[in-house]
Amino acid sequence: MFSIAVIDGQGGGIGSLIVKRLREEFGDTVEIIALGTNSAATAAMMKARADRGATGENAIAVTARRVDVIAGTLSVIVADSMMGEFTHRMAAAVAASDAWKVLIPLHKEKVEVVGVLKEPLPHMVDKLVEAVKSARGRVPIDAGGCTPVDAGSRTPN
To answer: Which residues of 47-77 are buried (b: 16+ CB within 10 A; e: fewer)?
Structure first.
């Protein structure tokens, strides 16, 4: 089954909004895994109807290697983000993952992505859902040694 990891920290508000919208769009045709930096974030995403959830550094590092898509904010590739909750190991694991990364460009970490329009969070989450839909068509589901690859290439790694 196509798997989407939603990563969030602090209170899990953004992650729970992402989970809710993904569930509305895909129903039960995808597996949504809530990965929280703390138990409050994981619980919020589980309440929003994630299929499974896990908390902490090791859970994020291990699961990032095993999913088709990682969704969250830009913070998930920035070490020490989320007021220090997102560790170097977590950021490295997400960045190094073969998963397709669909990230919302929030600017809380003194990182700004130029050329990106600033929009209300609900609009950005809608765009994230559309990007996941697009990624779902480009990312082959692991079958016979295939892992996510670049768009246009469907050869096993």
So the answer is: ebebbebebeeebbbebbeebbbbbbbbbbb
